[in-house]
Amino acid sequence: MSPESEARGSVRSAAEVNEQIRALWVRAGGTLSPQERAEYELLVVEWAAAIRADVIEAA
Q1: DSSP string computed for the chain
Q2: What is the Cα–Cα distance from 59 to 53, expressed in whole angstroms?
Q3: Any residues with CB less than 8 A from the CB of 27 and at least 6 apart, and which?
Q4: pLDDT tens string 4-33
């Protein structure tokens, strides 16, 4: 994920980001390299933002 997409906020749904997280874990075989760990951390932050946006929108 680029810094530009982080600045704009999540443009993907929580479900889309969750699917990417799951795919990363499968691809990594359950053990993340340092680079994969960094990608995972960015994805989790994006997922959390998407969840918050869904909750705010629902309210």
Answers
A1: --HHHHHH---S-HHHHHHHHHHHHHHHTT---HHHHHHHHHHHHHHHHHHHHHHHHH-
A2: 10
A3: 36
A4: 444 445 479 999 999 999 999 999 999 999
